[in-house]
Amino acid sequence: MKSLSFRPWMAARTALRALRRNKMRSILTALGIIIGVASVVAMVAVGNGAQVRIESKISALGQNLLTVFASNRRTSGVNSGLGSAGTLTVADALAIAREIREVAAISPEVSTSAQAIASGRNWSTSVTGEGPDYLKIRDWPLASGAMFSEREVRSAAKVAVIGTTTAKQLFGPVNPVGQIVRVKKTPFVIIGMLSSKGAGMGGSDQDDRIIVPYTTVMKRITGSKYLRSINLQIASADRMASAQAQIESLLRQRHRLAPGTDADFRIMNQKEIADTVNSVTNIITLLLGSVAGMSLVVGGIGIMNIMLVSVTERTREIGIRVAVGAKGVDIMLQFLIEAVTLSLLGGVIGVLLGFGASQSVALFFDFKAIVSPGSVVLAFSVSVAIGVFFGFYPARKAASLDPIDALRYE
Predict the structure, then answer these.
(1) In whole angstroms, what is the distance from residue 344 CA to residue 33 CA?
(2) Which helix (H) or strand (E) holds 52?
(3) Phi then psi for 186, rounded to 5 degrees?
(4) N or C: which end of the chain has fewer CB within 10 A?
(5) In this model, does residue 8 exceed pLDDT 70?
(6) 3-state SS, residue 10
(7) Using the 8-state DSSP alphabet, how is residue 314 labeled?
(8) In the predicted model, what is the mean pLDDT of residues 158-187?
């Protein structure tokens, strides 16, 4: 009898035929890989989507942004939060604009909440005092009208720019530009309406506001002599650290703070916030992917277990094949192909299922999940590697069976 030669395609055909004979067992065996790959793809996609969404929220604050906050105030043990203490003045803002060359734009800020009245309607909203450069700093275009000028800031003019939410509540579908709105009995002429920005970092509605000159708020509404904060745009990202150090030095000098004493202000760096958030989201994404990846290992163990059972069940078949001339490498290749085929099948279905699951989660939580090619390739490659790794031992065991003992096996 002519000895069978080593033909990989024959081993592959035999392996596929064996898998078809036990369809249900093959499907259940591949299920562990399917769930593992789907989990990795979905978790990484959701993590990437969350990271992009957070980054977009941070970038919506403006480009190259530094914010100087007044210190917090404590009253009877209650902390009122940043900006509540009277430590920043208009003179501080003017000094920063005059002496720090890296500053491209500046907007002193004061804020309060008040009842706005217009067209027979009223609405409780945020009233924010800003400088003319505020919209430039925040990268916030106008939907209609114009921003107030430096001249109107100096004269504490009664002009306002309104957010879309406040405009809708007070004026409905009517264009608010040119209309009058009263804030604490003071009438303001609306000269511009902001484009919609939606929810901010804390989930608050950024469009629910009225922006007026900061001098107007201080003189006509609150009577305060102090600023809540100073918004600054730095000329370039690589000069933010230098600008921050110079601003801190300048304000400590102006506030006569001795070396080693705590500052009565705080500077928040947008780039540092973005870097911190990115670091945290990367760790979370890696953690989610790692936890999901453990199910791939479980799936691999399932493949190994079933393949060992299969070797035991088909001992007599293996003996017959060896007796008619099949070599050990043919037997080994057959069982290895079976294991890898289950992993490949599970990987393909898992990628598709993971993509669908990530889109469903994103739809439910109203954000875009990002399925990166890298995560798909990684999950698919790991599934194949698991098929090879966990399929090798059963395949080797099958190839090492003694043909005489195998033929006697019942």
Answers:
(1) 9
(2) helix 23-59
(3) -100, 125
(4) C
(5) no
(6) helix
(7) T
(8) 93
d(CA 205, CA 95): 32
Average pLDDT, the chain: 80
Q: d(Cα 343, Cα 299) in Å, to the nearest integer?
A: 9
Residues 6 or more apart from 315 whose CB is under 8 A from it? 401, 406, 409
Pick the range with the lowest mean pLDDT from 152-166, 278-292, 345-359, 394-408. 394-408
Q: What angle do CA 397, 403, 408 make, to 5 degrees?
A: 105
pTM of the shown model: 0.62
Q: Calculate Rg over the CA atoms of the chain.
A: 34
What is the C-alpha separation between 67 and 230, in angstroms, rounded? 6
* Distance from C-alpha of 352 to C-alpha of 300, rounded to nearest angstrom: 19
What are the tokens at 144? 């209609």
| Count of positions (residues) in the chain | 410
The tokens for 392 are 């090798």
234: nearest Cα among 224, 244, 219, 223: 244
Q: Check residue 90 and give its pLDDT.
A: 93
In angstroms, the CA 212 to CA 156 distance is 9
Transcribe 206-273 into DSSP letters: TTSEEEEEHHHIIIIII---SBSEEEEEES-GGGHHHHHHHHHHHHHHHTTPPTTSPPSEEEEEHHHH
| pLDDT score, position 164 | 94
66 in helix, strand or coil?
strand
Half-sphere exposure of 55 (CA within 13 A, CB side): 13
Give the pLDDT of residue 332.
Answer: 74
Contact predicate 133/232, CB 8 Å: no
Q: Which of 46, 40, 23 is nearest to 381 (CA)?
A: 40
Residues 6 or more apart whose CB falls under 8 angstroms from that of 42 comprise: 292, 354, 355, 357, 358, 361, 369
